């Protein structure tokens, strides 16, 4: 073969030099001289160049003559084509393997992500299921105590004085009282051991709002809605409040007068909407988490008989002293509400025989009590002592002086 050079160590199969051997015959169809290779139109890429996924295994040889077919060029093309075919089934297979390897890694990552998502979803579903079947029940807080009520009817010793509201106020101890909400003055708020001055002021504001809504609001006084009062109470006391308003009873728990002031609209009307008020507040700590506020206020109402027949001189004064004790924990301060613990009410002029469980029944101008003697009390009776009707004589100094 022209241009061939024997290996320096001799032929690989041990055949003498210059003689055709078995190895030479085996590789003779595929071994060409250097000039034939240089004349090839296609050139095989190196291993590094074939590492790209989209690069063909062979390329056009630079500088090769592509013009004009000929016998030698056809032979070269056939060799190159045969060479290209052999690499065609080798190289793409390696590229396919690399593509499959990358695709496998991508598919594995996707499968792993999907498994992780399903695992998280399963854990969340299990937690939700267990939470719904075995919900955490926080320890219940202390429930509000039932309100304890004491009502005392103040009975006059003679007929009730009458006149115009302004004149009556001027001749009574209520002459110096301020009208309406202005008479419910709040003291300076001072911090306590466990509550700030702001929290103390919030507690005082809640109790003042309760006094205004339960003692001064015209709708409440004349038998109208009581929702505004109810909203200021601890929810644990709503049931007791509702029963006291709808079905009052003289049992020391369910008297309407323990919660609010109400007159029978069929018998009594307001002669002057400017109710005179005077009183005090006292703040203490019941515990590290509870404030206790005691209010002591006297409300003086100018009343007249209901109906158009009453004249301007038919008014009379009716005094109600309310001593209320409130408790407010930190939730109550945040929700602007209070727990009413005790309510002590003294009201007159009234008859000792009057029913104190529901709306108050004042004695109006010119009327006198049917009995001035308090009713007898039986210490052996099964009725609670708080349910016993209480009565006391109305001091003459509390009545308007004669003109």
UniProtKB/TrEMBL annotation:
Transmembrane segments: 107-127
Biased composition (Low complexity): 1-19
Disordered, as annotated region: 1-28, 45-75
Keyword annotations from UniProtKB, A to Z: Membrane, Transmembrane, Transmembrane helix
Biased segments, Basic and acidic residues type: 46-75
Record protein name field: Uncharacterized protein
The species this protein was found in: Streptomyces tamarix
Taxonomic lineage from the root: Bacteria, Bacillati, Actinomycetota, Actinomycetes, Kitasatosporales
